TrEMBL record:
Signal peptide interval: none
Organism: Paenibacillus nuruki
UniProt cross-references to PROSITE patterns, sorted A to Z: CARRIER
Domain Carrier: 2-84
Protein name in the entry: Carrier domain-containing protein
Domain of life, source organism: Bacteria
One family name in Pfam for this protein: PP-binding
Length: 97
């Protein structure tokens, strides 16, 4: 069973909460760059990634993570959705063994 895709709105809300900046809700969109347009500093980026991992039950390997996934909110949503579904597929395989 696949998880629902991660939405742009969910990610923008998380960015707004991590930055404690409600203006993110209106000024960011699917094409916004997570670092440059959202203005996340390095500490905020770590908090954001940890929040994404917790909320979507994914594990993001920082050593293998491609920064291009942060080039737009939509690209990041696609990446997280794919990771979540791959993780769920592995869990289901383990349960059937």
């Amino acid at each position: 069973m696949q998880q629902s895709p991660v939405t742009v709105e969910q990610i923008i809300t998380m960015i707004s909460e991590v930055k404690q900046d409600p203006s993110c809700l209106t000024r960011l969109d699917r094409d916004s760059d997570i670092i440059h347009d959202a203005g996340l500093d390095s500490i905020q980026l770590i908090h954001f990634i940890l929040r994404v991992e917790d909320d979507f039950n994914v594990e993001i390997d920082f050593e293998e993570f491609d920064m291009e996934h942060l080039g737009s909110i939509q690209a990041f949503c696609n990446f997280v959705s794919l990771e979540a579904n791959q993780g769920q597929a592995v869990e289901e395989q383990v349960k059937t063994v």
